[in-house]
Amino acid sequence: MSAHNRGTELDLSWISKIQVNHPAVLRRAEQIQARRTVKKEWQAAWLLKAVTFIDLTTLSGDDTSSNIQRLCYKAKYPIREDLLKALNMHDKGITTAAVCVYPARVCDAVKALKAAGCNIPVASVAAGFPAGQTHLKTRLEEIRLAVEDGATEIDVVINRSLVLTGQWEALYDEIRQFRKACGEAHLKTILATGELGTLTNVYKASMIAMMAGSDFIKTSTGKETVNATFPVAIVMLRAIRDFFWKTGNKEELGDEWLKPELFRIGASTLLSDIERQIYHHVTGRYAAYHDLPMS
Amino acid sequence: MAATRAGPRAREIFTSLEYGPVPESHACALAWLDTQDRCLGHYVNGKWLKPEHRNSVPCQDPITGENLASCLQAQAEDVAAAVEAARMAFKGWSAHPGVVRAQHLTRLAEVIQKHQRLLWTLESLVTGRAVREVRDGDVQLAQQLLHYHAIQASTQEEALAGWEPMGVIGLILPPTFSFLEMMWRICPALAVGCTVVALVPPASPAPLLLAQLAGELGPFPGILNVLSGPASLVPILASQPGIRKEGRALRRSLAGECAELGLALGTESLLLLTDTADVDSAVEGVVDAAWSDRGPGGLRLLIQESVWDEAMRRLQERMGRLRSGRGLDGAVDMGARGAAACDLVQRFVREAQSQGAQVFQAGDVPSERPFYPPTLVSNLPPASPCAQVEVPWPVVVASPFRTAKEALLVANGTPRGGSASVWSERLGQALELGYGLQVGTVWINAHGLRDPSVPTGGCKESGCSWHGGPDGLYEYLRPSGTPARLSCLSKNLNYDTFGLAVPSTLPAGPEIGPSPAPPYGLFVGGRFQAPGARSSRPIRDSSGNLHGYVAEGGAKDIRGAVEAAHQAFPGWAGQSPGARAALLWALAAALERRKSTLASRLERQGAELKAAEAEVELSARRLRAWGARVQAQGHTLQVAGLRGPVLRLREPLGVLAVVCPDEWPLLAFVSLLAPALAYGNTVVMVPSAACPLLALEVCQDMATVFPAGLANVVTGDRDHLTRCLALHQDVQAMWYFGSAQGSQFVEWASAGNLKPVWASRGCPRAWDQEAEGAGPELGLRVARTKALWLPMGD
After folding, report:
1. CB–CB of A283 and B791 under 8 A?
2. Which of A161, B568, B607, B657 can pair with B612 through a Cys bridge, CB separation 3.0 to 4.6 Å?
3. Do B6 and A282 touch (CB under 8 A)?
4. Which of B13, B277, B281 lies nearest to residue A42, judging by beta carbons?
């Protein structure tokens, strides 16, 4: 795991002048999807890369230790071994980036992964997931308990009301406290962009979250009516690039950002789609439902 | 498990995460060329025309240089055959009701839809442009154009009553234009009932394919004829009764010919980036404009000084991620445009560098010719020659500005006026800039959007023709009953000496006649001034007696009048239509008060008293009518795929020079003055040479009613004044009602700044008739359209 983002002092001038033009970003989002495409080996390699970015997730009310166990096994073996062999990728140690569960299931996940003999990090949602509408005290306590149970990544949700009412200092302070409560665990801040109103707010919330020391910023919980979309991803990536420019880091959001330490995709069904594509690439046939193991 | 067929490279790509080739198969394009035995002729009257003994030009893949086919070059007789076919087809095509034409255009759209893959691979293969842009942009827009114009055709009888198709349209496409540019022009032409002969540059098969698709549809084979040939054929095509397109040289060579001429020139675009903009999105706008194979030319980029560093950093970072490669690759941003384009840009960049500019190039671009990397030129001294010429593809020339006012000065300070975008999140600022830019299209916070229902065109030297929307239709229409234009070309007209010298005039005796004496002097800048030449010319009445003396105006007086008109223009154009109407109405009232004087002067010119009084009354009515009409100008368009309105604005041309006809000394003068002023132009007028006294009477009222400089009236030798006005570079448009020779001269001289010209070519007009004296034709010619795109969303 990479080092933590130490954050910076709150500097509101970084967000005071920013403007994000909604229709222009929408057009850009359409373009990106039409202008870059990868085929054949490139497609296969890119898809495998995507697998390593996945936070394999289950966040349901009916999660029990048995399906957590299955999920953890799938995280360890995301793609059928014979397919990887065919691509000469079987020795690359391809696993998903993390397993993501509710706090009450962290113990199950840690145990299952230990049994499978791997060190995939366990991520726990926390801080009043998914709405964030609980007392700050309980949200902080939730984080501490998850860390105690063995979660090494904490996915917190931000308090959307602070964004919508423009209380940026308060938002900064809250995330700062989350950061402290996480201790050594990584702080992944979910912005719930579908509930922030405008793309300009998305940019500002991203910047505040990074200044407060988030290691990752994530689009959404999967529980809002609008979740991860291309336009908000563009705005967040621009914010990340600007943050790194401002903090003196010369990196740009190019290829060097495409590693699991820096880039994640939270998903539950994406993995099986990818496996399906890889199957087709390797065999030239479309897979039957039963050809691929379930997660 | 099925057999494995994976390649060996996945492992390396997994680490490097590079992009791979995404080739689009062009097998169908080659197969189509094979059906022609790799030899392309012309498509005339629904058949391939492959005459023998013609030179041929190879059609090459611009990237590999591979020979794809040979293209026969047309000669004069081929042009004649095509024009004849179009003329025959015109009779049937224009006689059909609009609904029939609409059906045919719709069927053509469907055919294109069915064979679009062939069209886009062929176009991308021979032009080298990125296939994505052709496939997702051009081909889709081509179909939308056909559908839009089919609808226009179906409502033509009601919506365009009083207009008739011009006839055979000659369309000349320069080499930088794609088949889409041809579609923008042929769709309205075909919709209103015209037929087309298109002369395309050598080795451009996509227009030929389109013609074939259209021709094979059946009943109307000759409506679209495509010839491929060299530019030397242009005058030959133009000398056939037809119209349309190319450059300054064409304007000169066509002077006096029967053809109407519409020009669309220039490829450069402009982008204004203010300090309130979403800079990242504006940078994407730059990519759209210059580095995505959408526009044909380069970009002038104006950046507000306070965000200069930030914008340049983002721009340079973005450039690093651009990809260039073979056009048929589905994952490149830019293709290549062949050796000529490559030479042009190399020359430009070398010169810019030698003049002290900084050049930044980046991107993933193959190093061999004819690829050229995205290029950003900055610090180009404004006075250097490179700063004046048109920016070539794929260059962006960036320069700073301090305030919005300065931005307008810089942006409007070029002879080009095609399109521009404004990036600002402040509504007031964006509109101020959008209204102030002298261009045909302005996008606010977007760049390069197009739609069939939005008129697209330019102003200044970018030409004055329009395509798309209602304005595009009128380009191919004329008022019903307009006499067919005959060639009035006079081969021995000497352009160097026409109107150069003023024949001297001598005193012709004392003035006798009704008092008060007519006002004396040139009406310039709101008052009567003595002419520079300090001499006068006698004006005689209908019985040959001396009616009075008028001042003999000359070049200096014209200069002064144009200056006065320019000074008055910003104030007048900034007035609301209501305020302008109020002043026109005030002038109408003043005319009515002066009715008896005017009528008696008209009587001395030989009019019956009744008729003279009627002329005065009609003149006053014209002033009122135009005042009322201008209030209902401009409207909002709704465009598919865009949230937010597109404003279609009607803007004044600027300083309009009007040479009035000899007949109807009062009515014609007022009929021309009224629309010009109503739409916000200021004018320099040369009144009737036979009797300028009536105009001078009106000037007495204008002196009291109008602000100074709004209307300037210069009397004198007609040919001499015409010469001075036509050669004046700062006159934005010119109307000439007079002799055929004068018309020819005006058309020739207007090539200097490509001002739009309306010349009567010796045909008289019935000024007392509503259609000719106050018809919609005047309303169209007196203002220019601007499309202002306002995307919305938060």
Report:
1. no
2. B607
3. yes
4. B13
